[in-house]
Amino acid sequence: MVAANEQQLQAVPNQQQVLSFNQKELETIRRTVAKNATDDEFRMFMHLAQTYQLDPFNKEIWFIKYAKKGQNPKDVEPTIMTSRDGYLKIADRHPEYDGLSSDVVRKNDVFKRTMDGVEHEYSSDRGQIIGAYALVYRKDRKYPIYVFAPFNEYKGNAKIWNNYPSAMILKVAESMALKRAFTVSGLVSKEEMDVQSEPNDSNGPIDITPADQGNEKLRELTEREKEIAELVAGDKGYKQIVIDCLEYNFPGINNTNKKVSINDLDKAAYKQLVQTLQNAHEANAEPPDEEDDPLVEFEVPF
């Protein structure tokens, strides 16, 4: 009986305050966060959100489908994602959570794993990143849960990995340790996945339109295109937000030869798109990058 109770504590978060949504809020989540979800997928998404008390409106959990060229997003298996902070929220609410210790290990550091943790000392010249470790402590465990994430196994080509390698590999280790410590299932974090965006090979956010004679001419960007290009900044995840917006506002466009762009959005829809991108930046919740260029029928000039 004791073992069964212990297992229950591992698997089920502390649910003193139950996250719930009214019908209008559910409809909003369905239209925005889980836009391409089937009925069953949406129920699964909301079940995980409520089980782990993660709020879709606060970008603590999100629904992603990686559609390849020509694929209907509804035919793609979904990925339900959270972030390191989502795992940390689950841990914080658990009565047995007793802290997290983590750090980045570099080539010249003195590092040794011990039974009850690690021994880690910095050197004067630390050298390149080798990886990161995380220790999660529970009140009902004698020893901490230990995870080491090798840098060469997780480093992606996305811009954020190039700009913040220490922070990213640390998030990988922390996410894995928190997930393991509290047996979180059904969720993955962006940092755990081998999802890498291709480098942006373009020379800038310029839409190249073929001329009648087969030559190429450069068209100046509209004010809308300049604003959105600055918010997207070449990131495929943010570009996907734009594409999702176009798909939502022009349903059925994939079944035609017509192209649409942000210039075709009405004022309200465009304002909502800008707000969505700004919120994503402010929340520091980068949308996952796509492995393939999605929905080529849409004209996105960057």
TrEMBL record:
Biased composition (Acidic residues): 287-296
Transmembrane stretches, start-end: none
Positions of the UniProt region annotated as Disordered: 192-213, 280-302
Phylogenetic placement of the source organism: Bacteria, Bacillati, Bacillota, Clostridia, Halanaerobiales
GO molecular function list: DNA binding
Entry protein name: Phage recombination protein Bet
Gene Ontology biological process terms from the UniProt entry: DNA recombination
Pfam families reported for this sequence: RecT
